Amino acid sequence: MKKIINDPSHLLEEMLAGIDYAHGDKLERIKDTNVIVRKNKRQGKVSLVSGGGSGHEPSHAGFVGEGMLDAAVCGEVFTSPTPDQILAAIKAVDSGSGVLLIVKNYTGDVMNFEMALELAEMEGIEVDQVIVDDDIAVEDSTYTAGRRGVAGTVIVHKILGAAAEQGLSLLELKELGDKLVEQIKTIGVAIHAATVPEVGKPGFELADDELEYGVGIHSEPGYRRESIKSSREIAEELISKLKQEFNWQSNERFGVFVNGLGATPLMEQYVFLNDVKQLIEAENLQIEFKKVGSLMTSIDMAGLSLTFVKLTEQEWLDYYHAPVQVTSWGG
Amino acid sequence: MLTTENTVQWLTKFGEIISMNKAYLNELDSRIGDGDHGSNMVRGVEAMLAQFEAMEFNHAKDVFKVTAMALLSKIGGASGPLYGSAFMEMAKVAETNDLVTILTAGLNGIKKRGKAEVNEKTMIDVWEPVCQALAENNLTKSIIDQAVQATKPLKATKGRASYLGERSIGEIDPGAMSSAYLFEALLAGELIDG
Questions:
Q1: All domains of chain A in start order, with CATH
Q2: Which chain B residues are within 8 Å of A145, Cβ to Cβ?
Q3: S-S: A133 plus which of A105, A228, B144, B184, CB 3.0-4.6 Å?
Q4: With respect to CATH, is domain B4-188 assigned 3.20.20.150?
Q5: Most B CBs within 10 Å: which of A112, A122, A143, as the mutation test of the B interface?
Q6: Measured in whole angstroms, how far is the alpha carbon of residue A206 from the centre of its chain?
Q7: pLDDT for B134-193, tens place per residue?
Q8: Is A56 among the residues known to form the active site?
Q9: What is the per-residue DSSP string for A86-147?
């Protein structure tokens, strides 16, 4: 293992200190916690809290700010944050209108966020949650009952964040979130697994000429391993899976998000998007937004994921395009 | 009869037994999990014991609440929320001072949080028979031991060991073992009316 770190057991602490130093004008770390909150929060709106294990940067702290999240709770690498941390985030951001938790569907995250939700309710705070389970690769997985929550979570942050900013109530946001999650599907491919610093070796071994379809963001097994393919062929495979899932018709409206998993250069992500473009043109879909970048990573995993969002409501697109002030959403 | 004082004694004893068996719990967990159940539990009970030292309690309810927060914030993983939920639910009914009611509430808290039932090779496989035996007023060390041993032939379908499927057969569930220590500590105290 070769990494630019110090003692792996201090990694989370040192990363948070770095984030705090870099973005102290916009973000604030709640003292004695691993919670990053937005500075200058508008009073009266419903607050959004997300989080999970670290190693997925810029998720989720990079999406804290006006128009997206109010707080991100950062766990140890690939480990859910504990309920007391999540509770601290909820208490810090609630301004009386309630708090919505956005949780990736992993057993540990779901349990810890649920527990925090109940603790907050006991303290009289109104809280609800949206569970994101966009990964269509496999039904149950290591660490998961049901489908995994992956890159689509960032789209949920954006759309719900804008909706919250515009004054939707907690109940309205919860309904919007649940409806939206049903229309977000993601599928990934890896050509090299992630190395958790405290473990010191990759989560699984792929030969130099191998790839694996459907790998999760913690190196969970996918659905097929085969010899390496061209970007075009990978796009064909991933789009065929998405097509099967959406069963789409000509002229339906979609948003497309190509997400790098950590070690795949932006260059390759653009090459891949170009292949996606040609395939979706052949399907006659109407593409309303495209997003490219490494927004939901898996430490140093090489590979990418492809997310499609079926835009069944015009407001979703408006929320998607609404202004945002966070460090990592990009243009 | 449950009192503030004997509740603290019970849980202090639990903490001691966990600390003594840290290596054994890690070993059990390394066979079917990620090998840190003992270390995680020790972190939790140490935080709990530190709170006991620092605080004065008016009622067992507060003892359970403090225990819940200490365990869920320090154990981590899935065991943290599971033990945390158990003690949180116990706190909610602690005013009954009735041990069967309280432990049954804890059991239901675990079931709800883990979405698991008996025979899935989890801590529930100890909690359930213990609650039953308590209700019948005949909880003994051998009933606890039997419950732990009975997790051996089970195939895990919930919890981390479930990823091993068939390979989980033949091993004791680490969560069942740490739960057994909770009830061994209970027997050592004076909470159970003879």
A1: 10-182 (3.40.50.10440), 186-321 (3.30.1180.20)
A2: 115
A3: A105
A4: no
A5: A112
A6: 25
A7: 999 999 999 999 999 999 999 888 766 666 777 788 999 999 999 999 999 999 987 876
A8: yes
A9: HHHHHHHH--SS-EEEEEES-HHHHHHHHHHHHHHHHTT--EEEEEE--B-S-SSBTTBSSS
Q: Find which of B90, B110, B113 to mutate to test the A interface (most A CBs within 10 Å of its CB).
A: B113
Where do the structural domains in chain B lie, given as residue ranges?
Answer: 4-188
Element (H, E) at B5: helix B4-20
Q: What is the model's pTM?
A: 0.88
**Among B91, B82, B88, B75, CA closest to B115:** B82
Mean pLDDT, residues A212-223: 90
Q: How far apart are CA B85 and CA B79, in angstroms?
A: 10
Banded pLDDT at A220 (limits 50, 70, 90)? confident
What is the dihedral sign for C-alpha A98, A156, A29, A8?
A: positive
Tokens standing for residue B76 = 């981590």
A218 is catalytic: yes
Q: For residue B173, which of B187, B184, B157, B188 has the smallest C-alpha distance?
A: B157
Statement: residue A85 has pLDDT above 60: yes
In Å, what is the CA distance from B163 to each residue of A194, B32, B38? 20, 9, 20
Q: Smallest CA–CA separation between B74 and chain A, in Å?
A: 8
Residue the block writes with tokens 């948070």: A16
User: Looking at per-residue confidence, does B137 or A145 come out higher?
Assistant: B137
* Average confidence (pLDDT) over A267-285: 97
What is the rounded end-to-end Cα distance, in angstroms, of chain A?
A: 34
Cβ pair B103, B156 in contact under 8 A: no
Give me the sheet containing A71-77, strands edge to edge: A27-29, A35-38, A71-77, A47-54, A99-104, A127-132
Specify whether the backbone of A251 is left (phi greater than 0), alpha (psi in -120 to 50) or beta. left
Q: What is the pLDDT of residues B88-126, one digit of tens each?
A: 999 999 999 999 999 999 999 999 998 889 999 999 999
Mean pLDDT of A70-83: 93
B27's tokens:
């070993």
B111-137: string of b/e by CB count within 10 Å (b at 16+)?
bebbebebebbbbbbbbbbbbbbbeee
CA B34 to chain centre: 19
Range in A191-200, A254-263, A290-299 the model is least confident about? A191-200
Q: Is the pLDDT of residue A249 over 90?
A: yes
Q: Which residues of B touch A82 (CB under 8 A)?
A: 72-74, 76, 80
Distance (Å, whole) CA B188 – CA B194: 13
Closest-CA distance, A318 to chain B, in angstroms, reads 37
Residue A38 backbone class (left: φ over 0; alpha: ψ -120 to 50; beta: rest): beta
Q: Which of A56, A60, A157, A192 is catalytic?
A: A56
Among chain B residues, CA nearest to A87: B73
**Tokens at A133, concatenated:** 């389970």
